[in-house]
Amino acid sequence: MIFPKTYFDLEFIEDDNSVPIHENVIKHLANVEIFVKEDRRDCLGWITVMELADTDLWQILEKNLVSWSERKRLLLELYDGYKYLEQVGIHHYDLKVKNFNLKSYPII
Fold first, then answer.
1. How would residue 19 be classed by pLDDT, with cut points 50, 70 and 90?
2. What is the pLDDT of residue 10?
3. Are 43 and 33 in contact (CB under 8 A)?
4. What is the three-class DSSP state of 83?
5. pLDDT, tens digit, 9 for 90 and up, residues 24-52
6. pLDDT at 80
7. pLDDT confidence band for 102 (50 / 70 / 90)
8. Contacts of 99 (CB under 8 A, 6+ apart)
9. Rounded (5°) CA angle 41-44-47
10. Is 1 helix (H, G, I), strand (E, B) or coil?
11. CA atoms of 81 and 77, how far apart (whole Å)
12. CA 1, 23, 26, 86: dihedral to nearest 10 degrees?
């Protein structure tokens, strides 16, 4: 299976089996491009639609109720998901704790 080289290529894939899937990566559902009504050549931006997350890493760390061993486990899982995305050609250029969404994580 050949994966897209850039994040933007994902929106052109019609076969759901081609979209990269990893246990530590939230499911990507769609990209919505925003254009000026009169000119469809210049995209003003886009909205990414993903699965609903329970929380983000910032909220978990801010409450300071997570043990160091749990923090280490979270870090390793996040790193594993990030490395997977890099391997399939998807790069995230705004990495910060608020941008790491967590699904199925016990809300503290």
1. low
2. 41
3. yes
4. helix
5. 888 888 888 887 777 667 777 878 888 88
6. 92
7. confident
8. 56, 92
9. 120
10. coil
11. 6
12. -50
Residue 14 CA to its chain's centroid (Å): 19
Report strand pairing: 55-56 vs 101-102. Answer: antiparallel
- Residue 10, token pair as written in the block: 């994902």
Q: Is the dihedral of CA 58, 61, 63, 66 positive or negative?
A: positive
Distance CA 31, CA 7 (A): 10
Q: Which of 107, 104, 60, 57 is nearest to 78 (CA)?
A: 57
Encode 80-108: b = buried (16+ Cβ within 10 Å), e = exposed.
ebbebbeebebeeeeeeeeebebeeeeee
Nearest Cα to 1, choosing from 16, 12, 11, 33? Answer: 16
Tokens of 56: 């983000």
Total residues found in the chain within this entry = 108
Report domain extents, the chain.
7-102
